[in-house]
């Protein structure tokens, strides 16, 4: 007997609410699925509550373009991206509707785990808003992440949507400020963005690395253990980034990578010199 659509969706929702970050999730975070909504596609149907008691619906986006950003309290890229989005909101907020959609926790830990009820997920969304002093809308996806899953779930993707519900721009990571600023400039002026995607990877991840120790402090030591198992280079850079506390957090990852490069070159120099 074939499983029903309801049973399949229930299992997918349960799998979505993972408790341990692993290699499979890391790989999935790096690429969009082939059937993921892309520029030119209509946004999937959704009807979400916002933490201030409003609604965010695909059928009632309002008269402005919408910047929809996904994120969570335990996502280091979200930590890097929200200040970017706040700056952009200060510049474009009168011409573009900004909405941050709270998702599953990207790195659940011992102290701040994966929500298992909508009440807890809503509470996490409030904490995310308060943590960053966000002054635009924060919506909450349902407990099974139906909207997030429909978009090929990425921890901190961003979409620019026109008032009719058609996606005009997609960013893999919302901390790619230059690309997002360019797309917003076009959309705010009534133009389809010249570049409709941002696939930047190395830069956004390096900007996020310095935030990883803060996520560990907030969510618990399990987060660091999981990252060491799933992505040792990122875990190592996160550790090294703590040597550069005088630097802005977004620059610590690059500094850690530079230090690691110096160490590797020095060690290789010694090895070659002794042979």
Automatic annotation (TrEMBL):
The keyword Transmembrane applies. Residues 37-189 form the Thioredoxin domain. The keyword Membrane applies. This is Thioredoxin domain-containing protein. Keywords: Membrane, Transmembrane, Transmembrane helix. Pfam families: T4_deiodinase. It comes from the Bacteria. The chain crosses the membrane at residues 255-274. It comes from Luedemannella flava.
